[in-house]
Amino acid sequence: METAPVAVGDRLAKAEIEEAFDTGFGYQISGINPRRDARDRRYVLLFATEDGPYDDDVTRGRFEYVGEGLDGDQSETSPGNSTLIDAVDGGIPVHFFYKPTDAKEWEYHGLVSVVDHEFEERDGREVIVFAMEHRSAEPDREPSGDAGADANAAADPPKLTVEEDRFVESRRRERDPEFVEDVRAAYDRTCVVCGRRRETPDGRPEVEAAHVYPKAERGVDEVRNGVTLCRLHHWAFDAGWIAFTDDYEIVVKDAPEREGYYEFKQLEGDSLVFPEGSSIRPHPDFVAKHRERHGF
To answer: Total structural domains in the chain?
Structure first.
């Protein structure tokens, strides 16, 4: 969806944006909205208002955009933030909309590029600040060759690697490397939600060690605050789609208007899958704090 179904400068009401992009926003539009098109390709609808936490250049050139998460430290694993981080390398279209304070409609400003991201401390919490740039402000690139020629027939072969590495400084909370291995071992490298135990062709486990009470909230690196989840269910757990009862059954957020709800709803009431003979469980205090944090 690199080409938008609307034109730069168009002013659209919420219903018109939903119709143009074949999507929904529930009660209202806000912030970062990761979406997938009919071919399962990712894209983002990004919204900013005049009275939001953005700099003066938000409608032109390069600007800063604060990530999602209104309370506590923001997390790189939340759906919107993680998608924008993935968009730093390009390949994920980010469509930008802006609304002045007194306006009733959103103005489409076209595609923006995500240039970089970093953690900053603002108002006593850590937020993710994305450096973005309107595509119209990007410098014209030199053509790579005769536009009518077959690129594969070029005399000079393409480079396979860059000449030097470029590094971007990013602040992250220190994570105990032993936590990951201890949790994976405790749960036999199996997702406790779906019971899957996938591996890469060279034997590396897909399952991830997830904090029950998150690192972004200064959750501790110990096995009782950990659980193993596949990548899908790790995302669903961190995003607040699913939570666990004190009896280790799955509960699902009641949000039928959101994409993914009916997929996760099938998990409602299922018991977590623990290794046979193991007494390891997430501590009830952490499980309760996770439910509280996500409004269960």
So the answer is: 2
